[in-house]
Amino acid sequence: MEEVKKIYSCYGEYERLIRHRMEFYINLRYIKENIHDKSLKILDLGGGPGRYAVELTKAGHKVTLIDLTDFHVKEAKRLSKEEKIKLHKVQQGDALDLSSIKDDSFDVVLAMGPFYHIKKAAQRKQCINEIKRVLKNDGMLFTAHLSKCAFYKYIVREMPEVIDRFYENLIHIHSHGVKKYSDGDLFTDNTYCENAEDILGFMKKSGFVNGEVIASEGLVDQIEDKLKELEKSKFDMIAELNYMFCKDPRILNAASHLLYKGVNKK
Prior knowledge:
This protein has 266 residues and is of the alpha/beta class. It is built from 12 helices and 7 strands. Strand 2 (62-67), helix 5 and strand 3 form a beta-alpha-beta unit.
């Protein structure tokens, strides 16, 4: 995981979620709509700078944030102080080893980053087993994933003139979820991509039920730049319409980011 640490030691995830405000809006709204009780114990695993953790704390929940990098741990502490709220706990840690946490400690687990970067099947299983252990029976799990078309769409939009540099790797991602060889990009070298069926199958096999996957950007995937500076009233109208489409199975595998929800059964 050292390569992933390098990525996020200088990567502005807080700023990314500001730029991609629709992704954050849909994910947060969906999470809130599915956790009905108040004062739940929530683990934000791989929680980055704490945007989800802060909002869920504001909603009355008791949130523990764990992140791989010291940079994001410091950012989460700074953000919570800035927002005048107190996260229950913020600490550095690895999603593959939650041995410091007792079994059945949380009502809800968010893993909004780990499954982007765990490429090996054995480690993905290790991660989900750790989550399953610390999550209570009937607890709710939310996980974020990158789709197999995410990088293709980005390259075609931003730099189609260099498609030849990425061509073989994009084909390999479509077939295997990972690149065939390094092309010098640290982020994509350490990324795992999957489609909705892959996610649902993996989670079902891991003992989660009532699984559902949504498209985190709905129908505005890859055009979010146009919404970045939009006034709130107009953004809210677009967001409300867009939220109606995010669960449509016909668009899932054409989305760049996917969000899974499931219930833990032990």
